[in-house]
Amino acid sequence: MKSTVAETGPWQRAITITLESDEVEREMDRVLSNYRKRAVIPGFRKGKVPEELVKHHFRDSLETDLLQHLLPDAIGKAIAEHALQLAAPASIQDIRFRPGEPLTFVALVEIWPRVEVRGFEGVELSETVVDIDEETIDQFLQALQDRSAEILPVARPALPGDIVEVSIIAVDLNGARLPRAKRQTVRMEAGGASLLPEFREISVGLRAGEERMVHISYPEEFGDRELAGKQRHYRMHVRQVMEKKLPELDDAFAGRVDGLPSLEALRSRIRLRLEAEERLRARRQTEEALIDLLITQNPFEVPEAIVERSLGQAMEKARKEDPGLDEEEFNRIYTPMVVRLNKRGILLDSMARQESIAIEDEELDAEISHSAPPGVDPRHIRRRLQKDEELERVRGDLLERKTFDFLLEKATVHRVYEPRRRPPSIIVP
Q1: CA-to-CA dists, residue 287 to 93, 276, 292, 393, angstroms
Q2: How many Cβ atoms are within 10 Å of 107's Cβ, its own excluded?
Q3: Rounded Cα distance, 190 and 200, in Å
């Protein structure tokens, strides 16, 4: 087999491939043998049809099968020979094939771009880290306390903060069940801020056994497109009212939720966790600011095939969540995001190649060992990742982190600490 590559566009290559006649004949003999084994022609036993007769009856199918076997294998070998990284499957053109002669064809491919990354040394970036104050820790503790609350049924009307369990069904204005409406059982916090105003108002004062009608006007920006801006009516049956018994925030609470000896030790652990999360958030924000800078300083076009494939995958996922998806609107919103995401990947990949940044097996094993739960053999996790074809994804994540480490070492990052911003208090006269 012989192959040559010609540049036909910034990221497009035409691979001209020639297969010698003896190679083609060997494959044709194999295909013909398979056809003879299966061929059924009147007057001949199965498997005993003469070759010439098989060639005559199945000429077009034989050639199609021959090409389906030969071409993908030849393209794969040519791609490996020329070390091409494809962005999309090859398109086959100009097939020239006559029995007894070499087979030639052209595989048109779009390659994964490799950019010479410039302008990454000496850049200045600002990174804002939010201080974790005592009020933030208090809020986290209150969330822990709320999740640890004991839920107990009560016979009184619901007070703000109680849990109300209701069965609910969509009805018309007269209370008659709508066609195909399904009864659902839900729990809501009486007077909860996350509820729609109508539910928030009616939920306080409900008693177990009551039935109520509730009329909802959904806001235009409501998350469910089927309901946004519309009015709906529901019949609601109160199954039970429950009170949340919050545990005391004391040393015993710290021992139950995190095995710590004191509440103060729990607050310290919460601070460390929140500070680590905040540093990670700030780091990621800095990384994306660096990517935006590199995109500006290294302009290039993303191959159309990459954009189309990424958009197609995103749209397929979105359709499952919203069958009535407006495809034109989806493309308008998501195309710039998809282009940036792919430019990000191309720049990081190019940077790693340019600076010979790689992840050795020892680094991969160390990462798996570090993330393994206590008592779990890291080798078991590695085998499972390999079986699930996730091992290379982990390697890719590590490579991205290592590449960003390199880039940020070359940059100057000005880190600023600032207090957490909170909405102003609302004073009710």
Answers
A1: 42, 16, 9, 20
A2: 24
A3: 7
Say if domain 150-245 classifies as CATH 3.40.47.10.
Answer: no
Burial class (CB in 10 A: 0-12, 13-18, 19+), 287: buried
Ranges of CATH 1.10.3120.10 domains, the chain: 278-418
For 278-418, CATH gives 1.10.3120.10
Q: Return the CATH number of the domain spanning residue range 2-110.
A: 3.30.70.1050
* Strands of 246-362, DSSP E: none
Which residues partner with 212 through β-bridges?
236
Q: Cβ distance 107 to 12 under 8 Å?
A: no
Structure confidence by residue, pLDDT tens digits, 155-211: 999 999 999 999 999 999 888 999 888 999 999 999 998 898 999 999 999 999 999
C-alpha pair distances (Å), 186 with each of 34, 163, 205, 380: 62, 10, 17, 41
Alpha carbons 83 and 387: distance in angstroms, whole number: 27
Q: Per mean pLDDT, which range of 44-58, 251-265, 266-280 is the poorest?
A: 44-58
- CATH 3.30.70.1050 boundaries in the chain: 2-110
Tokens 């199965």 belong to 46
pTM of the model: 0.72
